[in-house]
Queue: 3 jobs
Job 1
Amino acid sequence: MSVERIQQQFRDSAALTQDALDTLAVPIAAAVDTLFGVLANGSKILVCGNGGSAADAQRFASHLIGRFERERPGLPAIALTTDTSILTAIGNEFAFKQIFSNQVRALGHAGDVLLAICTSGNSVNVFAAIQEAHEREMIVIALTGSTGGAMSDVLADTDIQICVPSERTARIQEVHLLTIHCLCDGIDAMLLGED
């Protein structure tokens, strides 16, 4: 493995992060305001995604329920990616497409938020979860990449899309992780004050 190849990975990541700074700051700030408002009203956040995005969903929920960087009471967030019994039952008895939407139908209420994470914006099960969230009068925050994919076409005016301007999955996931950290930090700052 060449050192130059490794250094190029770092350069590419840093370049995208810098490019995304101006594009994403406003929608991330809007997402923080929305998430804080939902939590302040006693509602909850449901989070879903596949593969690396499933891991991001779990990380986000764990930061809200546990803590991010400062001590505070836990906040209501549910990663829809974690219960293998639910996932395998729905996938087996109905369809993989429904593994998130069935959970949104059972757990989501008007005033809740669905944080939908998908690098391509084209995962059918995440797409179905968004449609179900809209049926339940939930707000959707979509973390996507590239052009936003099919998810872009179903988002409502009240929804927020944070679309990373890249075609590379690894780079999109890196910025998604930074975005998740920004969301958690922003919620904490609104709850606890800026440190």
Note: The first strand starts at residue 45 and ends at 48.
Job 2
Amino acid sequence: MKIVVCVKHVPDAQSERGFDAADHTTDRESVDGLLSELDEYAVEEALKLAESGDGEVVVLTVGPDQAGDAVKKALQMGADSGVHISDDAIAGSDAPATSLILAEAIKKIGDAKLVLTGMASTDGTMSVVPAMLAERLGLPQVTLASELSVDGDAVTIRRDGDAASETITASLPAVVSVTDQINEPRYPSFKGIMAAKKKPVETWGLADLGIDAAQVGLAAAWTAVQDVTKRPPRQQGTIVTDEGDGGVKLAEFLAANKFI
């Protein structure tokens, strides 16, 4: 069974993130990047499925040159091969354009029985690409899986909600997104790091996918950021000494700031 895992290279959440001054898109050049933490769960689940049977894991990412680091990390974890979609025209693409690129890449990879994604990217946190991807591929989608199993030509997930859990089954091929409750991603071993250097990674552009550049990029995006104001530095709080009237002073503070 061939499993394609869609992953994203995102700015490190521990770094000082911001926007590009020229076009107000996310600044990915001046900060360190890494494989999105939420995508690591999808990679791990794919590896577990592949190890339990005769499986092949292909990692797919879209982005500039540095996005190849996300593929590299997944290969070090144990994925078999990678595909990196890189083209200058992709910069600024929104979720619909990203889903188009991913869908055409998955078609080109071919024979995928299961497409796995994280529940969201840690930079965009939209959680809409899996649904868009399933629609473009004409496949069933089962999202937000806290547990996943494959039996023959069917995939079954458990989705945990606030009040109840649902069990959902779909026929394969299918698109499945997983949550951070599904497993504990492995760390790359020294053997895995060395083995990753010999694993194949293909780099494709839009022309390889038959996509017109006018369909993607910032100019084709449905929304755009018009202005950005940097968050002001955090100010020192007010210290109130309780001399028997602390409760009154707290109520006055909350009322003055319209919290009550």
Note: The chain has a mean pLDDT of 93.
Job 3
Amino acid sequence: MHSICIFCGSRRGRSPAPVEAAARIGRHLGQQGRRLVFGGGQVGLMGVTADAALAAGGEVIGVIPRHLMRREVAHQGLSSLEVVEDMLTRKARMIELADGLLTLPGGLGSLDELLEVMTWTQLGELDCPLALFNQEGYYDPLLAQFDRAVEAGFMDAEHRDMIEVLTSLDQVIDWLDGDARPLASGEG
């Protein structure tokens, strides 16, 4: 994977662990010569990840809807910032630019993005590696709901298992490096 889309919070959260993880992940992507695709905001875990990737010499592409330019404080120091009309276009464009998707802790937007890519994968409209960083058990209730949906017959186990659940930062780095190759000039 040479281009990774990261879905994550527009807030930092209360624990320092997600901030530290976002910085390490961004730095790792930059050092490995891989492209980060993200929601384009300067705030929260989005900004932390982007800043770390940029500081490490990485290419960072942000995609932000016009109406969130002020609310999420669009990041002005990116390699590229694409302004789109709405959230649906944002998600589609972020996914189009990436060949691997990683979800870090976040709120409703991150949950929406995660569930949408899982749905697209289930329907055969998306075929790329998906991972969820369940840092400090943050997504345990969601994973329990997936199990409940399987038990109740509303979801197949294969669809629950299509996303790789990672519980440590080392696992995230290993996942990122699993099929890693640097971005060759002219690719994109």
Note: The longest helix spans residues 16-31.
